Structures are given as structure tokens and as C-alpha cells.
Amino acid sequence: MEPDVLLSVRDLRIAFDGVEAVRGVSFDVRPREVLAVVGESGAGKSLTARALLGMVPAGATTGGTIRPDLSDRRGRRIALVPQDALSALSPVHPVGDQLAAAVRSVARVSRKEARARAVAALERVGIPDAARKARAYPHEYSGGMRQRAVIAMATVNEPDIVVADEPTTALDEEHRDQVLRVLGERREAVGAALVLVTHDMDVVREHADRMLVMYAGRLTELGPADEVLARPRAPYTAGLLASLPEHAPRRRRLPALPGTPPAPGALPPGCAFAPRCSLAADACHATEPEPQQVAGRLVACHRWADTPDLLQEAYRASS
């Protein structure tokens, strides 16, 4: 593992009843960076992210390596901000008690000290009147405030890596921006890296240093976020971007990716994206492409050299 790498994932595989839902994904996580993991529903984003914490579903089998193994150090070295804050918090215990319990799970401190750290964590994420709100129950918090509370819980022990699994999906734009700002402030304050699972390309553009694009359980493209967004090399990445309003010229119909992602147990031969890809050639239907270095990023595509023209062609076809 390289000296500047916090976490190294190599050939990660997750299967259910012999059917792989994550298929040979590799990437690194570096200090202070934001790594965005994007792709359509079912791409394996959340499974991949939760595997970093050793939180794969019961009955799953795994392969590959995650170094160092942080699954037994959740809360101390790595922590999770889940999508549904309400279900992540116990409804029968005050929020402050839950944060204090998180503190005492990794540190030998008194109940009074744990309570003080809990209140301080709520203050840091912008919870007003934190000492009083620490005595409140989750249902007494607003949606945005609950999300801040789970961020406080994830960062109260200053972990090296925070995994945020679609943390803003259920929030309006105002609360989304607040939550992302708080995550950014906490990341800068403690020097943690952030692995951000999201479908929101605005979030990627504004906050990510690198982005990992997944399709059908595999890495499709991995590189600096600004470069991938500006000049995608994988047709799937280009297709995702072409379907977003901010990428299309005004008054033009948005192009859409045809078809739907394949089910894990019904993958086509060759490249899983080939049946939906306008650039697919015979080789694409015959052989699954392996990730290769292209212009400072990893790309798994036989036709990567032709991909930069795909957005322009899509716009012409939709005009």
C-alpha cells in the first residue's frame, strides 16, 4: 500500500448465492479527499461502500482485499453516515445518549466526559442549543437536523474515513447544502477522507476530488472528478452526463440512455453495457474490458478513444 493511501481496495467481490453483485472493483482512498461513487441504481455503489466497514448483508460472500481491515474499528478509524437518519437512530433513547454511547464504545472516559463530547459534537454540526437538544429524541428533530446528528455520531471519534451513503437523497436543496457543508467542515477539521455515494452530479461537481463510476457491479471509470465530468472516456459515463440538464444546450430534448441495467444474474456476454451502448462493436459483445490507464485515469472500455464525441452526437440526435 502506498504511503499516502489510507485504504486500498483490490479486486473486491460480493456475491449472493453465487451471483456476483460487485465484480472485481479496485480503488484507493487518500487523506482528506472526497471520493464520489456514482452510477445507476443497482450498480453496486452502496454494497461497495459498506464493504469498507465490513457491513455487507447477511448471507453475502466476499473476495478480494481491503487494507487495512477496519471492520473491527468502526467508529474509531472509519464511520458511516447512512441515507435514512431516522432509522439509524434509536427512537427510544435521547440523541445525546446515543452519541455518548458511541464515544464510550471506543474511549475509556466517564459518562460525564462522554456526555460533554456528545454535546460538543452536536454543536460542531450546527445543532442550536445543543445541550437541550441532546436530551431530545430523534422524532423531535427535523429531517435536516437528524442528518446532522448522524454526521455528529459518525465524526464524534474523529475517524480517518467517513463513508456517506446517499446522505442527501431525502432532503430538499437547502438541507442538502447544509449537510454537505457540515460534512466538508468536519472533513477539514479532523483530516478525514470522505467516500460519498451519490446519484447527484451537482454534488460531485461541487465537492468531489475523484469519482468512481460503476455499472453492473464493476468499475467503469475512475479519475479526477473535474476531468471525468469535462471529458468522459467511458460511454456509460458520457451517457449519464448527457442525460443531465446542465450538460445539454438550451431548448433541446435531453438524450437518455436506452434500456435498463442488467440484473446481476443475467449479465450479457462481453461488456455489460454493450446492449445499451451506441459505440458497441463486435469486441464489446465478446470480451469484457479490463480497466486500463487512459489519460491519468482508469477506464474499462474497448472504445474509450471514441467516447469524447458521444456527448456531441447525442446532442445532435436530440435536437
Structure description:
This protein is α/β, with parallel strands linked by helices and 319 residues long. It folds into 2 domains: 7-210, Rossmann fold (3-Layer(aba) Sandwich), CATH 3.40.50; 232-318, no CATH class. Helix content is 33%, strand content 21%. The chain contains 12 helices and 11 strands. The chain has helices spanning 45-51, 85-88, 95-104, 111-124, 130-133, 143-155, 173-190, 201-207, 225-230, 235-242, 282-286, 310-318; strands at residues 7-16, 19-29, 34-38, 60-67, 78-81, 161-165, 193-197, 210-215, 218-224, 292-294, 297-299. The strands form 2 sheets. The chain has an 8-stranded mixed β-sheet with strand order 5-6-7-3-8-9-11-10, with helices on both faces. The chain has a 3-stranded antiparallel β-sheet with strand order 2-1-4, with no helix packed on it. α4 (111-124) packs across α6 and α10 (235-242) runs parallel beside α12 (310-318). The protein is elongated. The protein starts with 6 loop residues before the first strand and ends with a helix.
CATH class of the largest domain: Alpha Beta
Oligomeric category: single chain
- Taken from the alpha-carbon principal axes, the silhouette is elongated
CATH overall fold name of the largest domain: Rossmann fold
Q: Which stretches are poorly predicted, pLDDT < 50 over at least 5 residues? A: none
Beginning-to-end CA distance, first to last residue: 49 Å
The share of residues in helices is 25-40%
CATH homologous superfamily classification of the largest domain: P-loop containing nucleotide triphosphate hydrolases
Mean pLDDT: 88
Question: How many whole angstroms does the radius of gyration measure?
Answer: 21 Å
SS element count, helices:
12
SSE string: EEEHEEHHHHHEHEHEEHHHEEH
- CATH-scheme architecture of the largest domain: 3-Layer(aba) Sandwich
Strand content: 15-25%
Total count of strands: 11
Indicate how many domains the architecture comprises: 2
| Major pleated sheet | 8 strands, mixed
Please identify the structural class as seen in this structure: alpha/beta
Strand arrangement, major sheet:
5-6-7-3-8-9-11-10
